[in-house]
């Protein structure tokens, strides 16, 4: 008999029912929706684990020249498969009024044969696409919003603007991490909890209750290959981390970059750290790499609920009012004191040498 059964660990279902007891008037639809999402993630975990054995690696429809999503990114077979799994597992239950995803240009309407509900879900079905074919951890990210009242009352089709709700209006957010173990990290407000998938039972078990991010850290994550495009406050912050004990910070920092944001977020939840994918000058049409609605907002809610912080670099991420479904944004999150510092550097006037790096403190030309 799997040991887990004899343990007094809660299953995700049990956890949600106990959470619901805090809201006696709650209908239970919300819990059912979370469990549908969990089932979708279990299915995706299986597909990711089978990989080449299931023929799901590589680019989608490669034989027909491949497909490109609204971001202009080549879709991986697993991107499209994961998107389908999310839709099939959640569209039927009567809890959703509509959905939107990184892999779909427009909002997805709940098919007429299914009842419509009070919630909207927006998701990144597979985050870390560049790592899929090289067997590095990837994940799924989701954000749950209330549908606007007129959508609920009229049952009308959803439109982009129905999703333009600031991150602070999310009713739940989470991610699944497909790594050495499959985990789901969830917040329904009131803290962050982590669940590990028991492969024998096929159940998510509560293994990381009340996760909390240390306020300080000596670990930062950024894609340094973009450094020439960074704005001065980010260059200053990273330079100071690199200067370590010899510089203004007086302590050494270590660096990490997995290129799967979910895996970075999980590391930071487990042991602290700060992640930066800042706005930069690389492509003026893209004020950042990551997407607000289904990457920054859900991860931002998890960070804030775990005592960390999430920011654009200049302002709290969860205060940003979305203006398009796939809008990109600069994203900084993690240990509170580091995110506060990065925001402060954006507020502080630039020193002369920061305006002209050639004369920076540690440059070759310093007298
Ligand atoms: P998608 O894979 O969902 O497109 O997400 C974007 C992402 O892969 C993040 O997970 C990651 O943090 C970032 O892009 C990596 O960017 P880069 O390739 O520039 O390092």
Quick structural overview:
29% of the residues lie in helices and 20% in strands.
Can you offer a commentary on this structure?
By secondary structure, this protein is of the alpha+beta class. Helix content is 29%, strand content 20%. It is built from 10 helices and 15 strands. The chain has an 8-stranded mixed β-sheet, sandwiched between helices. A 5-stranded mixed β-sheet has the order 10-9-11-15-13, with helices on both faces. It has a two-stranded antiparallel ribbon with strand order 12-14. Strand 6 and strand 7 form a beta hairpin. Helix 6 crosses helix 9. The radius of gyration is 21 Å and the shape is globular. The N and C termini lie far apart (73 Å). The chain binds 1,6-di-O-phosphono-beta-D-fructofuranose. 1,6-di-O-phosphono-beta-D-fructofuranose (FBP) binds next to strand 3.
């Amino acid at each position: 008999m799997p040991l887990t059964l004899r343990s007094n660990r809660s299953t995700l279902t049990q956890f949600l029912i106990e959470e619901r007891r805090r809201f006696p008037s709650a209908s239970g639809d919300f819990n059912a929706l979370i469990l549908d999402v969990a089932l979708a993630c279990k299915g995706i975990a299986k597909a990711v684990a089978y990989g080449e054995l299931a023929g799901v690696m590589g680019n989608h429809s490669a034989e027909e020249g491949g497909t490109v999503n609204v971001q202009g990114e080549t879709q991986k077979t697993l991107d499209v498969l994961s998107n389908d799994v999310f839709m099939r597992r959640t569209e039927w239950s009567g809890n959703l009024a509509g959905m939107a995803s990184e892999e779909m240009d427009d909002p997805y309407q709940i098919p007429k044969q299914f009842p419509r509900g009070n919630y909207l879900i927006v998701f990144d079905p597979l985050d870390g696409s560049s790592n899929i074919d090289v067997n590095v951890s990837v994940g799924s990210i989701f954000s749950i919003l209330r549908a606007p009242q007129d959508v609920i009352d009229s049952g009308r089709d959803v439109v982009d603007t129905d999703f333009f709700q600031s991150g602070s209006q999310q009713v739940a957010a989470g991610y699944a991490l497909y790594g050495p173990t499959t985990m789901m990290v969830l917040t329904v407000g009131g803290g962050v909890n982590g669940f590990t998938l028991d492969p024998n039972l096929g159940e998510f078990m509560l293994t990381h209750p009340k996760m909390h991010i240390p306020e300080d850290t000596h670990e930062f994550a950024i894609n340094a290959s973009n450094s020439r495009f960074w704005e001065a406050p980010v260059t200053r912050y990273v330079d100071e981390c690199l200067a370590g004990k010899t510089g203004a910070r007086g302590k050494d920092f270590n660096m990490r970059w997995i290129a799967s944001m979910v895996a970075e977020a999980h590391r930071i939840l487990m042991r602290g750290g700060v992640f930066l994918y800042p706005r930069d000058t690389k492509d003026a049409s893209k004020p950042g790499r990551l997407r607000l609605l289904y990457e920054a907002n859900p991860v931002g809610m998890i960070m804030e609920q775990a005592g960390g912080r999430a920011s654009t670099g200049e302002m709290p991420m969860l205060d940003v009012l979305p203006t398009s479904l796939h809008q990109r944004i600069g994203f900084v999150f993690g240990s509170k004191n580091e995110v506060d510092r990065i925001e402060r550097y954006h507020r502080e006037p630039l020193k002369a040498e920061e305006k002209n790096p050639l004369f920076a403190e540690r440059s070759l030309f310093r007298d």
